[in-house]
Amino acid sequence: MEIKEPKIENKSAFTFFTSIWIVPFIALIIGGWLVYEHFSKLGPEIEIEFKNSGGLSAGQSVVKFRDVPVGKITKIEINNKKDGVIVYARMNKDAEIFLNETTKFWIVKPEVDYSGVKGLDTLLSGSYINMYAQKGTKLVTKFKGLNSSYIDLNNGSYYAIEANFPVKVKKATPIYYKGVKIGEVNTVSLDTHSKNIIIVVRIYKKYESLVNSSTKFWVQSLIDLKLNDNRLEVNMAPLPIMLLGGISLDTKFDKKYKKDYSKIFKLYKSEAEAKKRKIGFAKKEIKKFIFNFKGDVSSLDKGTSIKYKGFDIGKIDKLKIIYNKSYKGFEAKCIGEIDISDFSTNYNDAYKNFKELLQKGLIAKLSKPNPIFNKSNVVLEEDNSTIAKINIDKDSNLIIIPTKEYIDSGLIGKLAEVTDKINKLNIEATVNNLNDLLATSKKPVKKLDKILTTTQDLVKNANKSLLNINRVIGTKEFRGLSKNLNKTLKSLNGTILQTKKLLKGYGSNSLFADKIEATLKELHNTSEQTNGLLRKLNKKPNALIFGD
């Protein structure tokens, strides 16, 4: 068998090239395509100036727009003024349309405050720059970064609230309506002119209809106490409010109240104060007046309410207490602010009506409705006995409202007055006189016996009232008052019993009928006055504390 020798043929250069270099060639084409893709997607490089880097890292931190990475930080350096940093970022091509005058940048980093933890997504990935923008045509490459997150004004409405007392609210403090969060505090600042706190709140867009010119804001209480049908109700605030605090609001849904209300709202201390009945109009007209009080001014203080017919119409704005040498006592010089819009009518303006009241004898008194809290009110009332002349203070050019010293006309004052009258009766001497006079009488005096029976019923009612008073009032002074009054009434009761006993054997045609009738008439008048007071105390034992 013949074996054929294999025939070897030489390969061409083309075949050799394709068989060895095809892989690197393909890799080169792919690499070139990737490079083209990379540079074709690169947008412009931008500069953002911040106060500090905020934890950003060059080559790692990114720029996000709507939670999508649209750029990467390439370099961070100190600015020329040495008061901040400049962050360089290479943006994507598709983000170029959003780099314009509407663009805002801020740094997102993990933060912990009283409202919770923010920026949790940065715990693993690190800080990044967030971006807000709208489409535009003019390209901008240099920006000023924000110190805090940007808030879109179109995503809700903003309102200003003024507080004239210290309030513990911060940025992001919730705003509630019937326990539902409808907004949050945006900024808190101090007005250097009025010395009041200005709070700017944002109400979310879907709840904008809840705010109009009737809206009232108040600080949310942790515990709410209410007396309803003689029952004490205690309501605890929800846990989020107890932890974070909050501001609540209430609104009247009526067409007469304006929407898009742009004036500054007032912040009240509590819901009860916010919903307290108010006279006058929403538009206030504040006027200042001078008050000069003498006598007991120890309970007068800045912020004391000015009342007229039971309504709050103003407050004491400034107060200075000085010693008056000629008067030999202390005098309080006050400047009061009164909302005279409450006195407006359809025919006359408010200021004219108020000045007419002054000309007819309007005066101011300092009252003490509550001895426990030692709080006073300035009460305006008419004194028709005199026609007053309007006087102007030379230094301040303000109208002076005449004042009178404090006279307690409440239940406590009446009780003290009646007690003094009973003490002045000198019961012991009366008993001795009765014994002498009764020795000359021989027949019963029926008319006087009827008076004594009425007075004896008074003593029973007084004892019952004193028990109720002692349950309400626990102070040492009031315990002493009720004890002394009770002792006096017991002595009076004994005298009445003794008198009735002696009357049985004596007549009315003696000296007794003439002399004792005058004494008992005074006692009877006093008893009638006391009886009216005690009927009030039986119906409402706590009237001594809370008033009529």
Tell me the number of strands: 27
Helical segment tally?
A: 11
Mean pLDDT: 75
Number of domains: 4
Q: What is the helix fraction of residues, given as a range? A: 25-40%
Low-confidence stretches: none
Description of the molecule:
The protein has 548 residues and is an alpha/beta fold. It folds into four domains: 41-144, no CATH class; 157-274, no CATH class; 286-404, no CATH class; 411-546, no CATH class. The chain is 30% helix and 30% strand. It has eleven helices and 27 strands. A nine-stranded mixed β-sheet has the order 25-26-19-22-21-20-24-23-27. A seven-stranded mixed β-sheet has the order 5-8-2-3-4-1-9. Helix 7 runs parallel beside helix 9 and helix 8 packs parallel to helix 10. The N and C termini lie far apart (142 Å). The model has no long low-confidence stretch (mean pLDDT 75).
Can you lay out the helices and strands and say which pair or pack?
Layout: H1 13-41, E1 42-50, E2 62-65, E3 68-78, E4 85-92, E5 104-108, E6 111-113, E7 116-118, H2 122-125, E8 128-132, E9 142-144, E10 157-163, E11 174-177, E12 180-190, E13 197-203, E14 216-219, E15 223-228, E16 231-236, H3 239-244, E17 247-250, E18 265-268, H4 271-274, E19 286-294, E20 305-308, E21 311-324, E22 329-339, H5 350-359, E23 362-370, E24 375-382, E25 391-392, E26 399-400, E27 403-404, H6 411-424, H7 427-438, H8 446-472, H9 476-503, H10 511-539, H11 543-546
Parallel strand pairs: 1-9, 2-8, 10-18, 11-17, 14-18, 19-26, 20-24, 23-27
Antiparallel strand pairs: 1-4, 2-3, 3-4, 5-8, 6-7, 10-13, 11-12, 12-13, 14-17, 15-16, 19-22, 20-21, 21-22, 23-24, 25-26
Helix pairs in contact: 6-10, 7-9, 7-10, 8-9, 8-10
